[in-house]
Design brief:
It is a single chain. This protein is of the alpha+beta class and about 150 residues long. Helix content is about 40%, strand content about 25%. The protein is built from three helices and eight strands. It has an eight-stranded mixed β-sheet with strand order 4-3-2-1-7-6-5-8, covered by helices on one side. A hairpin with a 5-residue loop joins strand 5 and strand 6.
Length: about 150
């Protein structure tokens, strides 16, 4: 049995807005504190780090190409990476409209970036196929908010 669904990266609009706010506030500090060296460099470092996070979030939200989720007998192939069912602790669903799916492996507290996705189309069928696969492989699937990096 092999079921395929087109998937894409989850939207990072919240992260993008947050980084814009942080960059703006820290930029004001950089401009006001240019004569206080320690604070100037601390604020400048914060601006640069937020800029990197902003660029990564923009790329993942708007420029990363959709990929494919493949549900096989005892494994999932996502973004070209094979995930064995025995390595999955839980599958989490966040949100109702355009839900985001996160696959949490054992020994992890945060869902890895490449294991979070949303369906490009026909999400109801995609989620029901994923629930059936999870049930066949004795993996719990829950509606729960989760975190990813960036």
């Amino acid at each position: 049995m092999e079921i395929k669904h087109p998937v894409k990266s989850p939207s990072r609009i919240g992260t993008i807005i947050g980084m814009i706010v942080l960059i703006t506030s820290q930029s004001i500090l950089v401009l006001r504190l240019w004569d206080h060296r320690g604070l100037f460099y601390a604020s400048l470092t914060a601006v640069l780090m937020c800029l990197v996070v902003l660029l990564l979030a923009l790329y993942r939200t708007f420029f990363k190409k959709p990929t494919e989720l493949c549900l096989c007998n005892e494994q999932i192939i996502l973004n070209g990476k094979i995930i064995n069912s025995r390595d999955i602790k839980v599958i989490m669903t966040r949100g109702y409209f355009k839900p985001v799916i996160g696959i949490l492996p054992y020994r992890r507290k945060i869902v890895p970036l490449d294991m979070a996705f949303r369906y490009s189309k026909d999400e109801d069928r995609g989620i029901s196929d994923l629930k059936s696969w999870a049930k066949m492989n004795n993996i719990e699937m829950v509606n729960k908010s989760f975190q990813t990096w960036i």
